[in-house]
Design a protein that fits this description.
heterodimer, A: alpha/beta, Rossmann fold, five-stranded parallel sheet, 8 helices, B: two-stranded antiparallel ribbon, 13 strands, 27% helix
Amino acid sequence: MNTAEYKGVFVFAQQVDNEISGIALELIGKGKDLAKDLGTEVTAVLVGSDVKGLADELAAYGADKVIVVDDPELKEYRTEPYAHALASVIEKYKPEIMLVGATAIGRDLGPRVSARVHTGLTADCTQLEIGDFPINPIPGKEQLHNQLLMTRPAFGGNTIATIACPNFRPQMATVRPGVMQKLPKVEGAKAVVEEFNPGFTPDNKYVEILEVVKSVVDTVDIMDAKILVSGGRGVGSAENFKLLDDLAEVLGATVSCSRAVVDAGWKSKDLQVGQTGKTVRPNVYFAVGISGAIQHLAGMEESDLIIAINKDETAPIFDVADYGIVGDLNKILPALTEKLKAELAAK
Amino acid sequence: MKIVVCIKQVPDTKGGVKFNPDGTLDRGAMLTIMNPDDKAGLEAALRLKDELGAEVTVITMGLPKAEDVLREALAMGADNAILVTDRVLGGADTWATSTTLAGAIRNLDYDLIITGRQAIDGDTAQVGPQISEHLGIPVISYAQNIKVEGDSVIVERQYDDRYHVLKAKMPCLVTALAELNEPRYMTPGGIFDAFQKEITVWGRADLKDVEDSNLGLKGSPTQIAKASDKVRKGAGEKVTLGAAEAVDYIIDKLKVKHVI
């Protein structure tokens, strides 16, 4: 493979129901940094049915160019037609970098495409930069410049590894939502828009969608919250989450939870923080009755301020909490809510 | 029906995990287990076997000691077990791993392949979809329910804000979520049988339609530039307080940090 033939930073602009997903804008934001270091441009790849109208929004957030693959087969996400679309774009346009969101869609699409175009894929990256590989010169080994260095957590967040893909292109990564920053919106910004349709002929790899069942929960995205009041198994019951709801209301916060709470059926999956849930980094994270399994810590430890309340003084959550209170949440929360109410009313 | 289930032996990162004083993981404390998503996948296969009659073959790629998870799978009720092990396979990334497993699976008759969504050591969720691509069959990942109807599978596939009910013609690959089911325990009879059964061991020569250049470390497109244990920021203050004192303490901290 002649890696020098591959140019440009491409991002998969995920849309669902013809609405651009936040991760697409985050990837454009990060892509701009990388493109600047490489002296190249950012191209958004927009795949769907009747989606051309979304190109302006991608431009407003920094895309220099938008490639639109528009076909009725692409209405709802399905692995095969989307993989065909993205792999065909890669084969035709030869990008040096291809970024995809580490969402339930991107983590399905990415591996299928990487296997098809024969390149490496680094999953769930939390940091991307341009640098040398090997990072430090090794005698007898050529040091390559302008490589994408992809950093990701592994072992449930206990180790971090930086990965390169020196001999194959594109260098592909899926990127965790909520980690990269989108750019400020520039109204009226325009991108070069190009339509490309590789042709879609259903074969054995096309699956049939029998039903689409949408979550009916009124979703406040916990990834956007400035303050999270997060509950774990220690809260004791679905009803007892009222204590957290009350505190959240006074603080203008959002309630989230640990995996144990989702498994118990007390809260829905979209409120789950952690390795198999969402990564959050609010200004304040209250961990209430959460023991702090490492999978949970991986999703919240970047929060600016962590306040933990747990009756078990050996709970691992105290290892990452800025302020840990060993005590009874059933007594502390109602009292805290009342006192905060009074404090805030006095202001 | 013939079902192939891919399983992996992983370090147990749940429970009993302790940090060293410097914030890194105390690896000495970790045992190995069958990866939880894979175990749910195996349970799904065994339920299809109970319901419809199926031959369930488990396969793993790893060091010789990965035999332990194959024995466990046999004790749960799998019919056959295959260990793919060879020095030339070492250091494989997901691309080379999926190439290897696809090369092994090409030797088998199968209607359905089930893998876990992801392993708790790497968390990549890549190997299942990549195997399906190498074999040219459809994939349905993130399965929260699996049914078989005639020559098709019907799967509930989880997304962030919805699920799809999908139908695929077999042969097909499905990746299973741990929440799919509650895996059964090994039975005493099963454990006894498991140690009577032969485990098939395959090496490089047994892989079908695979080039040497696509295996192991040298067949891996991704390479590690740097790896380190994550240094956590470390514990802050920890206090044991009654409710009234705790409230004052928290409010004081929120004021100092200008939250209120």
